[in-house]
Amino acid sequence: MGMTRCASVGRVGVPPQGWARAAALGCLLCVLPSILWRLAMLAGVDTGFADADWYRAEGSRIAYVLGLDALQLAGALLCLGLAQPWGERVPPFVPGLGGRTLHRLLPMALGGAGAVLLYVVMGMLVTSYGSVWLGMREGWTPAAGMEPLEATMLGLAYAPLFAWPVVLTVALVGYWRRRSPLRPPSGGHLVR
Length: 192
Hints:
The protein is an all-alpha fold. It has helices at residues 3-7, 18-42, 52-57, 59-80, 105-133, 148-158, 164-179. The longest helix has 29 residues, at 105-133.
């Protein structure tokens, strides 16, 4: 790839591929179950989580959980931009920047850093909790003391998170391909 093509702001207005649109939406769908589980836990629903009362006891702990939910939701909503017009151009209502084309490397760099971070966090969780659940070491897990149904609900709420870095990677590939500038093949014709 030439330096000129890499430095290009990239194409705009090209509709996203269906699979890329599905992957971007998948990012949001991956986070919603765990957010809803934590909100239910904060609201007093008996989720079986042994530390629920501890989190509900102080405003700072409630703020921590709500902050985690907000951060997760904001990250997932930004992933939607990989298949939306506002992922190419700053929305018109943004003062001073509205209508400007985003350089394609900005969402790629931010999304790529987010994907790497998610792979690392998910890998750490699998290593940490997985080794306890498999009996390879002693330790605490969020499912400690839960009944089988409660542990199943916890698993169903959190399992989709492990797909988030994968679907984000797919959405990033779609974004990169869609925004890449046209390049003439060896025959001289332009292709998309």
